[in-house]
Amino acid sequence: MEKYAIKFLFQFRVVSTEECKMRTTEEKIVLFHINSKDNNNFFEIANKRAKEDEFNYLNDDNNMVYYEYIGIVDICHLGIEVDDDVLWYDIKTLLTPMERKNKILPNISQLKKRIFTK
Questions:
Q1: Tally of domains in the chain
Q2: Most C-beta atoms within 10 A of its C-beta, which of 8, 74, 86, 94?
């Protein structure tokens, strides 16, 4: 079995009297294990999985909100070069990353706000 991480893009579309072009979106990374025999319909399988996550609800303003699948943003093959607990990786060239780490990395307090709520 081959292991892939796929980054999907979804949007929250609010139906109201005023159409808003700016929308809240979500990128979701999902892990896939694919048999070699499924390679021909790999994207069909991935798109079907993402479509299953769509839902809708009525918000506090009594407007319908649709959580809609837009498409695949990126894909990463997780081969033998990665450990079992690795879900995503990206290799790129950056200008002096170690020397600029304070500028390119968020500080710990910013990261904590993303996962810890009071």
A1: 1
A2: 8
